[in-house]
Structure formats: C-alpha cells, structure tokens
Amino acid sequence: MGSLVREWVGFQQFPAATQEKLVEFFGKLKQKDMNSMTILVMGKGGVGKSSTVNSLIGEQVVRVSPFQAEGLRPVMVSRTMGGFTLNIIDSPGLVEAGYVNHQALELIKGFLVNRTIDVLLYVDRLDVYRVDELDKQVVRAITQTFGKDIWCKTLLVLTHAQFSPPDELSYETFSSKRSDSLLKTIRAGSKMRKQEFEDAAIPVVYAENSGRCSKNDKDEKVLPNGEPWIPNLVKAITDVATNKRKAIHVDKKMVDGSYSDDKGKKLIPLIIGAQYFIVKMIQGAIRNDIRTSGKPL
Amino acid sequence: MGDGTEEVVVRSHVEETKKLVEDEQVVKNKLVGSDEVKNDNEDEVFEEAFGSENDEQEEDSKRESLFEPDDDLRLEETLQSSKDEHDNFEEAIGDLDETSSAEGGVKDLKVDNSVVGESHREAEFDSMTSKINGDKVEAGADNCFGQIESSLDVVENTEKVNSNGSNLAAEDVNMKVDNSVVGESHREAEFDSVTSKMNGDKVEAGAENSYGQIESSLDVVENTEKVNSNGSNLADEDVNMQNGNTHSVLENGIVSPKNKEHSEKAEVISESVGPVEPWDDGIEVENWEERVDGIQTEQEVEVDEGTNTNHVEKDSVCIDNESEAKINGETGVDSTSSIVKSASSDNSLNDNIVVASAGSSSPLEKSSSEEQAETEGDSNGLKPEHDLASSPNSNMESTEVCSNSGSPEVTCREHETVQNANGGHDVQQSPQPNKELEKQESSSVNIDPEIAENSHVGRESEVVNSVSPTESRSNPAALPPARPAGLGRAAPLLEPAPRVPQQSRVTQQPRVNGNVSHNQPQQAEESTTAENDEHDETREKLQLIRVKFLRLAHRLGQTPHNVVVAQVLYRLGLAEQLRGRNGSRVGAFSFDRASAMAEQLEAAGQDPLDFSCTIMVLGKSGVGKSATINSIFDEVKFCTDAFQMGTKRVQDVEGFVQGIKVRVIDTPGLLPSWSDQAKNEKILNSVKAFIKKNPPDIVLYLDRLDMQSRDSGDMHLLRTISDVFGPSIWFNAIVGLTHAAAVPPDGPNGTASSYDMFVTQRSHVIQQAIREAAGDMRLMNPVSLVENHSACRTNRAGQRVLPNGQVWKPHLLLLSFASKILADANALLMLQANIPGRPVPARSKAPPLPYLLTSLLQSRPQPKLPEQQYDDEDDEDGFDESSDSDEESEYDQLPPFKRLTKDQMAKLSKSQKKQYLDEMEYREKLFMKKQIKEERKRRKMFKKFAAEIKDLPDGHSENVEESGGPASVPVPMPDLSLPASFDSDNPTHRYRYLDSSNQWLVRPVLETHGWDHDIGYEGVNAERLFVVNDKIPVSFSGQVTKDKKDANMQLEMASSVKHGEGKSTSLGFDMQTVGKELAYTLRNETRFNNFRKNKAAAGLSVTLLGDSVSAGLKVEDKLIASKWFRMVMSGGAMTSRGDVAYGGSLEAQLRDKDYPLGRFLTTLGLSVMDWHGDLAIGGNIQSQVPIGRSSNLIARANLNNRGAGQVSFRVNSSEQLQLAMVAVLPLFKKLLSYYSPQTQYGQ
C-alpha cells in the first residue's frame, strides 16, 4: 500500500522473446482499459510463492529463503512500464504448524482493503503426490475470506514443474492428474456447485522458478515439455484478468466481516411480535388458572 | 632427510644382498644417526623413537604428556629437522616429494623400509614410523597420528598424502607410504590400520581422501613395480608384498609372516595384494572423504583407526599370521619352518606382548617394570620360542618378536613395526641378526642403553620398549584424550592390574581361539589353558556380534572405513570396555580378528548369516514409503500410486537383500494436518496392534527431502506417533529423506545452494522436530537419503547414486543393521539396564536428618484420657496447693467490695482512683486464684467420682457419660481470627463451623500469611480422640492442605499406655509429606514420672522417607526446680545410611511467682545440631515483663552461630495511647523524604 511504484527494471532481464510476448499481453490489457492489474499470490508455505513473484517480476524483489518461513506480512510489489502498472502481492504461507493460518489470512485481507484483486494465483507444488485435508482447509479458508467468487479469478500455479514424475507415468499424465486432484480439492473446499465450478474453469499453469531450470535457445525458461512458462503464465493471467467475471474488490465490509451483525436483522420485529403473542398467551393461561382455582387471592 | 634416504639405501642394500644383522645394524645405526641429527632439535623424540633406555626413562616421564605431540613433532622434525608440526607435515611431504623425485623409486623403497623401522620404533606412536619412512612416510605417519590424535591431523595427513602422491607420483613413494602406514598400524594397531589406510591413500598418490583402499591395491601394484625397479634385493613384488604385509602386520602384527611369505613367494604377495584390493574396491574412497570431513572428533578418528585395523584384519593373511605367530611362539619349530612361521611367532609375540601391555596398562613405570618382567618372563617362556623361531627363521621379525615379548604392548607394536621393517628390510636378513636382536631386545627390555647401539632391530625393539612404556603411560594420561576410549588398545592399557605375561598369553589365546580357532586348531591347543574370565562369554558373544556386523557391512559392500561401520565398531568396543572393565582385556585386536573372521566366513559363503532385521516404515502420505520398500528389495513388493493413498493397511513383507533377511512393515501414510490426527491415531493404533507380536527393530521415518517444512508442520504428526508408541519409538529410528535426488532450492540470493547444505538443513529440521516430539534433546537420529526414482543416476553396479555420490541403499540398510546390532549388543551387555538404573539410586538423596531430628526432639504431650486431661497440670502444680490454702481463705475474708460505676470513678481524685484500682487488682487476683482452686477441686472430685463409678456396674457408667458428655446441640465455634490484612473482604465467614457433639473435630486450615484477597483456606484439619478399652487414649489428627503448587498431608496418630506408677509409654505414627515424598514415622516414647521434680523420657523413632530409613533415639529430661522455674533438656541422634546427626535442645522457663496470674515470663531456648561436622547452634530468649497495670514489654532475641540474629521489643499497652504516636515519627520522616526532593525541584 502506498509502496513506491517503480519502473519495471526487471522487465529488461527477460529474454527478448519473453519480453515481446509480455508486451503483447499487456497491450491486450490496455486495450481493455486496464492500466493496472493486481495479482494476489497465495498458497501454503514453502511452495514457491515468493519465487514465483520474483520470476514474474524478473528481479529478486521478495526475499526467498528455503529453510525459513517468510515474514508474516503480505508484501506488495508494484512495477510500472509504459503506463501499465503491475501489482503483485506476495502473501505469507497459509499453513502454520498443521493449521490453516487464519491470522495470516486476516492480515492479507486487511492489507487488501480497498483494493481490487484482478487475479489470484493459487500456488502449489506439482511434485507432490497427495492432496490432503489441509489443502481443502486452505481453500475453504480462502473462500470464507474472499468469497466464492474469488475462484473465478483464480489461476492455479504449480511450481517445481521441472521434475520427472514417478516411473510409470508420463509427465503429461502426471501433471494433469495432479492439477485435476488439486482442482477437485478447490471445488470441494470452496463448496462450489459442479456447474459453477466448471464455469469458473480455473486454468492451470506450471512454473519452475529454480535457477537450474532448463532454457531453450532463446534463453527462456522452459518446462520439460519445451514451453517457456513465464509467457504462459502471463498469458493465463491476462486471460483471467480479462474474463467476464468481476474482479474481487475487498471492501471494508468484507474485512470487518460485518455480515455477522447483519445476519438475522429482519427477524427482530418478527421475534418481537412473536414475543408479544407468547406473553399474551401466558398471561391468559395464568388468568385462566386463577379463575379455575376458584378463589382469587 | 638426506640421512634418511641414505639409510634407506642401506636397507635396500641389505635387502638386496640379504645382509645379515650387521648390515641392518648399520642401517639402524645410520638411521639412528640420522634420527639423532634430526633429533638434535628434538632429542626427546628421537630418543623415544630409538627407544634407548635413557630415552625410555625420560620418555616415561615425559611421554605421558608429550608423547603424542612429541612424536608428531619429532617426526616432523626428523623429517624436516625443525618446523612446526603442521608445517613439518607439509614439509615432510615436500621432502617426500623431493626424495621421490630425486632418489627415484629405489630410494623410495628403501625409505619405506626405514620408515617401517621407525614405525616399529615408534610404532606405538605412529609418528615415529612416519619419520623413518622418510618424508613421505612421515607424512603418512603424520596422518596416522593425526587420526589418532585428531581429525584435523588426519585431514592434514590425507592432504599430505595427496601431496606426496602427487609429488612422488612414483611407485616408490607409494611403497614408502605403505610402509609407514604399516608402522603406524603396528604402533596403534587399531589406529595403525587407519594409517595403513592413509598409506593406501598415499600409495594412490593423491587418492588421499579416499584413503583409497582401492587405490592401495593399485599402489601395491605400483609398489611392486617400484620394487622391481629397485630390483636390488627381492623382487619388487616382494617389496610390495612387504608393504602389504606391513599392513597386515600392523593390524595383526602378522606382518612378518606376510613379508616372509612375500619373500618366499610372489604368490603370497599377490595374495596379500588381493586382500588389499578388495578393501580398496569398496567404496571406501567416499567413505574416507566422509571420514575426513567428520573425523574432527577424536572418536571418529579412533573409529577410523578401528576400521583400518579391521581392514587389516580382513586380510585373511593377517589372521593367519596371528595364529601362526602364536603357534610359533609356543612352538619354536614352526617358526623355523619358514619366514611365515617366524612372522607368526612374531605375531604371537606381539599378541603376547600386547596382552602383557594390556596388563601393564599402567604408566611408564609399569611398562618398564613390566617390560622387564615380561621380557624376562617372555625370555623364559617366549624367548626360547622366539629364539627357536628366530633361529630357524633367522628373521628380524623373530628378533623383533623377542623384543616384543620382552617389552610390553609397546613392544608388540614395535614387533609389528619391526616385523614390517623385517618384511621390508629383514626378510632377507639372516636369523643371526634376529637372535642378536632378540638378545638386544631382551637387553633393551632391561633398559640397556647399549641396545640402542645394537642393530637397528635392537634399537627398534628398544624404541618399541620405550615407546611402549610411553604409550602405556600416555594412554592413561595423555593418550586418552587423543584416543577415545573406544580404541581397543586404550582399554588394555587402562587395565589396572599388571598382568603376568602368562596371563596375558592366556587371555590372548582365548581370544585367538575364539576368533581364529576355526582357522587354526593349533592355537586352540594352546588356548586350552585359557582362563575364562567372567566376561569371556560375553566378550565372545560380542565378538560374534562384531563379526556379524562386519559380515553385514561386507555384504552391503561397505568396508570398515565406512563411517557408520566404524562408529558401530567403536561403540561396540566402548560397550565392551564399559562392561568388562575389570581387567578383561578389551580386544585390541578383536576388530582385526572379527574382520578376518568375517572375511573368511563371507569368502566361504557357507555359514549362513544369522541375522534378520525388521524395519517399520512410517511417514506422511505420499513421501514414498512403499516405493522405498520396493527399492530396498529391488522389486515391486507393493504397488504405489502417485495420487492416492497407496497403502491402505499395515502389511509386511519379507525378503532378502544381499542374502540378509529383511522384513519390512509398510504402513498407511499419515496426515500432517492437525485435524487429521485422529485419523493418524487410528492408523497408528492399527500399526501398533500389528507390531505387537513382532516389534520392529528399526523405525524408518520417511519424509521428502525436497519439501521444506519451514514451519513445524509435522509436529502434530510426530507427537501423535510419540503418543501412540511412546517416545522410545524414536530411539531406534532412522530418518529417511526421499526424493534425495532433488535439486536443492535456490538460496536467498538466487544462487543455488549446495546439495550437502540442503540435506543438512533438512536433516536438522527433522531431527529437531523429532527431538521435540520425543521430548529428548539428546536424540540424534541418523539420516539416510533415499531416492526411489527410476531415473536416478546409477553406478555400474546398478545401484542408485545420489547427487553427492552416495549409494543410498547400502547406507540405509547399514544404518538399520547397525542400529539393530547395537541394540543387540546393548541387550547382551545389559548396558541399557545399567545406565538408566544408575541414576535412580544416585538420585535418592539422603534424608533430611536435621529435620527429622528436630521433630523427634520435640517434646510431645502424651495423649490422655478425656477425664485425665488436666491431670498433668495437677501433678505439676499440686505441690503448691498447700501454700495456696491461706490465700484462698484470704479472699473470702476480705470485706465486701463494690465496684464503682464510670460516673463514680470520674468523681474520684487521682489518689483515690489509684487506691481503688490497686484494690481491685488485688481482689481480682485473689478471685482468679480462688476460681482456679475451685476448678481444681472440682476436677479432683470428679476424678474420684469417676473412679467410684468405674467400680459400679455398666448401667451407671452410661449415665455418667451422658451427664459428662459434651453439649449435644451444635454450637457455632468462635470465628477464626482475622489474618493481618487490609482486606475488608475476608472470607472468614465462609468457613464458620460448628462445634457439634460429633467426636470428630473438623476445621479449615487457614494460611494467615497469604496475599490479600487470597482465600487463605487451603486445607482441612480433622481431629478426634478415641478411647480404646476405656484405658488407652488414641488421638488422631490429620491435615490436608493443597495450594497451587503442591499438596501436603499430615497425619498423626498417637496413643499412650500407662503402666506402673508414673510410667507411661506412648506410641505414635506420623505420616507427612516432606518435599515430594511421604515420610512415615513410627515413634515410641516412655516417660518416667517417678519424681516430682524430675521427669525423664526416652524415645525411639523410625522414619521411612522415600526409600531410606532413618532411626533416631532421644532422651529428655524435664526438671521442675520450683514453681516458677522449669527446664527441659533433650538430646538425640538420628542416623541413616551411616550418616548421623546429633542434636540437643534446652528450654528453660522462668515464670512469675504466682504463675497463672502473673504475666512475667522469661524463656530461654537453645538448640544445637551437628550434622556432617556442621555445627549449628541457635538460641533465643524471650522475656515478658509487665509494666504497670496495663502495659507489657516483650523482648525477644535470637542468635545463631552463623552470626544471624534478631532482636525485637514490643510494648503493648491498654492505655497511654499517645505512645503510639511514636509510630508517626518514621511516617513523618518518610513523608518528608518524599516532599523534600519535590521542593528541590521546585526551586
């Protein structure tokens, strides 16, 4: 918030081919009158959120330490280039000691007040085999915080894409299976209806942030299937940003969770009315009782 | 160095020409000279090395402290004459290089020989040998030393070795290195082996780190080549053989036989080489590197050494040699048969010597004396043998053997070294020299300086002798730090009782038998006399375990160089030592033997390995548990699914890995989420049920290497595991990190972090988490890496290799087996039972005798029957009844007195008032007296009445009880006094209670010193007085208090019986919490009230507190001198566990003349306590003096012998309230002090 909007120096770090594509995508955005875009990056701890941010910006803007938990506060990185502003908000890991870190979520939410999230990057690792309850809980927590709609603006980013899947599976099979299982988890966690979820059509993008990522002849970082992933990612981001869904605006109400106060407001007169009648009824019963007992006291 | 080279040359000549002892002597002389020259700087070192008597003596004194370092220094010095140790090493290396380059292979070879000789001399010290060997050799020696002494040294050594290898690059260098290694090995046997490894490295020429046993084989080859080039004497091969032999010799001391063999036949050489090669073949290079890295700790170094020895042992030749040697020693004939025999004799001698040394273990003096004695004894027993052997063998070795026999352990080493030397130099030497040497040795043993002059061998032997004492000394003193206890040698050295050589032999023989008996029945024959230590059986079993483990390691392709193997061997040795510390010699050579035995068994391939290991795999879901199991067995035992829970239930599978039976229990994956812990518990409980019958030996906890759990996300999981299985599950757990081929993540600056760093970090995180989960910070679970991916890089053998070059599967299995083996050993030695058992008794602290004594000394009233409650007072005061009689009437005689009202009082004048008050006071006094008297009378009447009633039938007594019984209507008891508090809201009212007719008196217990607003009622107190049989009063009182921290309970029961006139015995039982334990006290006291003025009591008490019982005795005497003075003295003693506390107390009381009425009272208390010679005296005095009509002055003082005391005065008055104004003074002052600074500020 209020952080300095700097010229996007890191953009020059990208290989020329990547730059071209990025410019093209941003141009597309501009055509749609989007002069700025805000990307929120969330996910469990240690999956590579910050690395992804760094990869996207092309600079080491967020400190990455493999063995230590990152800071507890969200960090926003803003870069401007040719009148287009890119805001990327890196958030702390959402899992702490086996629990969903609701505190971190609250922090993120507070950080985002009066901002609009154009795209949510939900980051997880590709090279993990299982999806567990915790994943579901994370998704549920995000849903509770930002509402179901956020998933319509979501992009599933699977990091550590450069790995060789277990023996019998091909890379494609593995990655599709993995993304399927994650998407399923998201659906279950967000409690979206099937149709609703299919409409949302969360795209999946693979990423490999490691410095050891293999590169093609244009010096672009490529996935094992030979595709350069950064342009892919940006393309997917622009796609999501420009889809018809409304961007998620985080307002005061959402942050304060004021819903709880409003809930059942309408019932108040009803209850009062009901009370009136109940009291009447009881009074009548008492009087009746007195009468039947014969002698009023 | 030039000298050294020359000497070497001489030796080579000797070898070539097979010169006799003379030549050798000359060489030795030369060597000595060179040494001396070099020594000029370091006389001590040289002397030691030479083992001259003088040196020995000096060394004896100095060696303890200086030996190791000195040796190093000396070596260095010798090599380079004057340089720092490190520098020296380096320099030495440089020298070596130089020599190699300059002198060529032949010289190098010679150098090697000389080195061997040195090694013999210093064998004990390793460093010496290195010196002798020449720079190169020295380097090796340094390495050896380094290993022995410190990991750093090892590293240096390896480096040096490398440098040597690089520099020399020639085979000669390698040869030398080998020799030096041999020497080292001889010296420290176990350690020596390490050196041998070092040598191997050197041989490898730069293979350094790997120690490159593999390379060593190559080196051997090279050596042979060099030898050939030398071609002076025996075939180069022979020389090489010697090197190899030396290695073996070093290990077993069998070098000589090998050498002989070599000399005899090239085949022998080849054999020796062969064994060497296999060692080399092992992945040892990696291991070595690892070792080097980790050898920083001394223990590790030792382990390395041990492993080295093991390697040596592995050479079958070595074992054979030992057996042979023994045979030789016993039967000279064998020795005559061949060099081999002589070698065997040497070996035997060495063994014997070793044993003797072990026995001697004592410092220099012992060593010297022992050596002498041993030499004598040996000469008696062994020498003949040696002579025989030597004569037939005509080898230096034989002579060496003799010397060895003469000298203690050191000699053994020396022998080894000598043997090495012999192997190198002496093989060709005639038996004559041997004899001479033997003689010399014997003489040297006797501490003859002349011996030094004698042939080198003699010197060597002497040196050895000297060294041996030094070593022995150093071992107890200086060495221990250098060499961890795990070293076999150290243990023998530490043995307290110097053993007679015969004993040593005996012990050796059994060992030999145990290990070697299979191979050589001859030994068995000799061993028949073996005395069986009580620990022999255990040791045998331990040895079997060791053999088993070595076989396992062998099957897994791990050499004893492997860190894990080495550590296990070390720990086994340690366990053995701990266990058999009463003099049983912990096998210095047991490693050798075990390894040799393991080799043989493995080679034979017949004896099935009686070992199976059950591994239980635990871990989060999806980390690859099933996949790991499949990898272990190299086949798909369980199907895995990347995306689903592959394993739904606990299942086990059995299979064979390298012929080792392995059972693996696969478990369903656990879930990390906190909310899933219930599921986990269910899973784990099913696992628990599954393993109930067949508990696993090892738990393998798997996690992914490439998942950075930066938070403590797995804590729940780990805690759940701890909860279900108990924290002990982690004691035998191995952490497995799967996906070990993962690329380490980028560091903070975007650069890739190193793989090792990555692994270390991850391991640390998990280990720490386990530590926390298990609640034991000492836990250090070993970590093994696992990679199940089929794309994982493999080596030629098809084994998966990790990015760091580790072949993980053998490592993992080895870790598992090692844990199991250690557990077995622990079970065997019952160490675990002992260790946890020890602290318990140690923890039980001595009972607080002073406290118990104080409570014993307390004078307690004896319980009385209700109707006798006041008897005692009667007794006490009865004697002044008569005197009171007149006063009694006095009150009645007084004229009637009318109290004045307040108004009337106000009208009185001052004097009138005073008179009135005086009069009133007087009358009050009299009245009180009268009342007391009446009360007394009444009681007496009652007593009489009761006595009469007792005689009546029962029916009447009931009436009496009724009439005499307490009020039957509950009456509220008076409120408890309010605690001193500003709290208006005192909860006293909540705890009102009634005084009912109930015989139980129950009251709350108030803690008056609590905080304001704190409800001070923390307990309940109950009392009751029973009467048993109408005669025996039993009082009971119990109190339970509980505050936030702890609960206290106090229970007291007492009863007393009167018997005879004035005698009563009371018996009491107390139970109360003392600290956190309950103390039960049973006490008994008898009072004698025979005299009016003197009452005595004696009592006994027994207290059980925790697990200790204390008994006490007390005597008490109560002296009632007059109505107003009484004194109670008591003394007693309390004892427990031989600990006695004495105490006494004195209490004197001075009362007002008319006691019950007068307020004057002075008491003096004094107490003395003596415990542990600590005398505590305390006294207090308190006096209460009435001042005027309505004021009291109370003065109190106490003081103890520590100088701490307290004085207090207290005045209370019911008038003159203005006196209280005094208290305003300090208040005012305080206020003023507050005010004055403010005014200052104001100004």
Largest interface: A-B, 43 and 47 residues
Widest sheet, order of strands of chain B: 9-10-11-12-13-14-15-16-17-18-19-20-21-22
Shape of chain A: elongated
Residue windows where pLDDT falls under 50 for at least 5 positions of chain A: none
The percent range for strand residues of chain B is 15-25%
- The first-to-last residue Cα distance of chain A is 74 Å
Mean of residue pLDDT values of chain B = 58
Report, as a whole number of angstroms, the end-to-end distance of chain B: 90 Å
The assembly state of the depicted protein chains is heterodimer
Uncertain runs of chain B with pLDDT below 50, 5 residues or more? 1-532, 582-589, 832-844, 871-888, 954-967, 1238-1243
- Share of helix of chain B, binned: 55-70%
Would you write up a description of this structure?
Chain A: One of its GO terms (cellular component) is chloroplast outer membrane. Chain A: Its EC number is 3.6.5.-. Chain A: GTPase involved in protein precursor import into chloroplasts. Seems to recognize chloroplast-destined precursor proteins and regulate their presentation to the translocation channel through GTP hydrolysis. Chain A: It is found in: Plastid, Chloroplast outer membrane. The complex is a heterodimer of chains A (297) and B (1243). With 297 residues, chain A is an alpha/beta fold. Helices cover 42% and strands 17% of the residues of chain A. In chain A, strand 3 (75-81) and strand 4 form a beta hairpin. The radius of gyration of chain A is 26 Å and the shape is elongated. The N and C termini of chain A lie far apart (74 Å). Chain B is of the alpha+beta class. Chain B contains 45 helices and 22 strands. In chain B, the strands form three sheets. A 14-stranded antiparallel β-sheet of chain B has the order 9-10-11-12-13-14-15-16-17-18-19-20-21-22, covered by helices on one side. Chain B has a six-stranded mixed β-sheet with strand order 2-3-1-4-5-6, sandwiched between helices. In chain B, helix 18 packs antiparallel against helix 19 and helix 27 packs antiparallel against helix 28. The longest helix of chain B has 42 residues, at 910-951. Classes of the chains: A alpha/beta (297), B alpha+beta (1243). Chains A and B meet through strand 5, helix 4 and helix 5 of A and helix 34 and helix 35 of B.
